[in-house]
Amino acid sequence: MEKFMKMIEEKLMPVALKISGQRHMQAVRQGVVATLPLTIVGSFFCILLNIPIDGYSEFIAPYLNIIDVPFRFTVGILALYAAYGIGASLARYYKLDQLGCGMLATVAFLVSTVVPVKVTAGMPEVIADGRYLSIGALSASSLFGAIVASLVAVEIYHLCKEKNIVIKMPDGVPPEVANSFSALIPAAVVILLFWVIRYVFNFDISATLSNLLMPLKDTLSGNSLIGGLITVTLITFFWVLGIHGPAIMSPVIRPIWDMTIAENMEIFAAGTAASQLPNIFTEQFLQWFVWIGGAGATLALVCLFLRSKSQYIKSLGRLCLIPGIFNINEPVIFGAPIVMNPILAIPFIVAPIIMTIVSYLFTVSGLVPLMMAKLPFTLPAPLAAVMSTDWSIMAGVLVIINFIIALVIYYPFFKMFEKQQLEKEEEASLKKA
What we know:
Layout: H1 2-20, H2 23-33, H3 36-48, H4 56-60, H5 64-67, H6 69-72, H7 78-94, H8 98-113, E1 117-119, E2 130-132, H9 143-162, H10 175-182, H11 184-200, H12 205-220, H13 225-240, H14 245-269, H15 283-289, H16 299-306, H17 311-325, H18 330-335, H19 342-364, H20 381-388, H21 393-432
Antiparallel strand pairs: 1-2
Helix pairs in contact: 1-14, 2-7, 2-14, 7-8, 7-9, 8-9, 8-11, 9-11, 9-12, 13-14, 13-19, 15-20, 16-17, 16-21, 19-21, 20-21
């Protein structure tokens, strides 16, 4: 096992770190993660629409249209915000004007994705004459189109700057004015390029990418148990190597996760029951049912640490308990450590796999509804699971069952680790004596 871990560390880790540090990957990760506050706030309004209290539905019925607005302008146009964030993030890498590049990425996405609808006279009692944009085209379903448009737009800007194809202003002109004029030619190139693609060749980038990547969405997310297990295994495996698992997976899995939970939230907001939503393996499914205490379900291990005969392990358990309750587990991952530790690495990977299978069976059997909200990851798992499944008590019961499963799987490895640590402490005590 140690030889295998060493081989992985020497061969795989450099490649993984290089991929995760690639500028476009970083830009996508940072830009999409920047939308997190908006989606969380939007989720709370989605929950607000569906509180299981007698008479509540009748009470809020007159206010449904206005309560729904924050959700529509957060989760409903998620791809629009992501386009700006990705463009600004890539601009920071190139040391370009972040504000200008963010706007350029946004307009590239809009031109390539949204076709304005012209409404003429004929139905004035429904809608006034004018041009309208469908916000449906700006949702998470167009996230891959936003990624491509943003990256291409900023790369064109960067190329124009490198080749000096810009309008230069005289010295003494304020930087914000100089940056605006410097962006004129790149902006014209970007807008013309995406306009030709969308309106001359009638090629919809977002729709095409969504269709091409649908198998990947169905494999790594959606309702595929195999895909869910692959995701869980890779995340925990990278953590064992000392690499932030979700971070390295983020450029691939994050857009898919955001698409699946946004799709669930939109369909739920439209009136579909939580048990009838389309996607099982959202990020929230893993967050609340599998990552109890953080990746690897380490809260169970922390609780075992509290009963340890080893002073070091017991002290570490006390230190890690409160963060673990709120799903922050870096202290135990690096403090025990779990990283590059063959004894604790095995349950760290195996426990989440078993918990994922159990959670999947509970979901497909109808015992637990699907996820319909995106809550902060620091909420305690039982409460967040109940809220995220439209107040299903069985979701909280499933969290408790999975926690017990994690305890059982971790226990024999904890005892081996404890024995090893007690021997070290005894040896140190003898040396000191």
